[in-house]
Amino acid sequence: MARLHDTHCHVDLYPDPGEVIAATELAGVYTVAVTNVPSVFPRCKELLSGRRFLRPALGLHPELAREYHTELGLFAALLEETRYVGEVGLDFTTRDPAERRLQREVFGRVLELAAGRGKILTVHSRRAAQDVVEMVGPAYPGRVILHWYSGPLGVLERALANGLYVSVNPAMLRSQRGQEVIRSIPLGRMLLETDGPFVRSGAGPAQPRDLAAVVEGVADLLGLEAIRVGRAAHANFRQLLHDEPPADAGCVSGPE
């Protein structure tokens, strides 16, 4: 199995973050530890200090934008302390036009602040995929990952054409819609995530060390060998880290 990575894990929100950190270090899974508001980032950074495989991400979750949009100044001040940005984006499960407008303003400012600074963004797009893809645009100066994508496949196709990546998790493998999305992702754009502790794997919250099962599940779904899926995902992650253009692998829907 190729080396694993987790592009979206809420390490600070597990009941015992220390146990998750130790297990992740032992497993050697390179993990992006997202945060939900800027004021939490310093604690997360301290928690991960000296760790080989975990890195903190600076976030401002769209569902918290109404309460925490005043922390955009803090977001700007902290941005140089990390290469990773997340969790950010839009969540239009709310029907309140004012809240949607505020989310757009916050996400737009995040995109402006991160542009051209070598950042890697993991982006939430629940019921807002079209707006997210339009706001990121076709030539955003940064690397963008659509986390747990669940929107229209046509919008996904446009996102892929714009160079975005998509991360997959255990929950996606368990749903028909998630499987449809996975089948639509080119192997050269697929990344891994847990979204732990909110997603479960087996009897407990998913952890980075569980991602080998996601690789195997994707391989079974696509009719491929797990080693091929794992190597492709690892190569994609390395491209992100080295700021290289994404590979154009084409959609893989079955064995070659």
From TrEMBL:
Keyword Metal-binding carried by entry: yes
Record's keyword terms, sorted: Hydrolase, Metal-binding
Binding-site residues, a divalent metal cation 1: 8, 10, 87, 195
UniProt-annotated binding residues for a divalent metal cation 2: 124, 147
Gene3D superfamilies xref list: Metal-dependent hydrolases
Molecular function GO labels: hydrolase activity, acting on ester bonds; metal ion binding
EC number(s) reported in the record: 3.1.-.-
Top-rank lineage group of the source organism: Bacteria
Pfam families: TatD_DNase (PF01026)
Catalytic class of the enzyme: hydrolase
NCBIfam families reported in the protein's UniProt record: QatD
Protein name from the UniProt record: Putative metal-dependent hydrolase YjjV
Naturally occurring in which organism (per UniProt): Calidithermus terrae
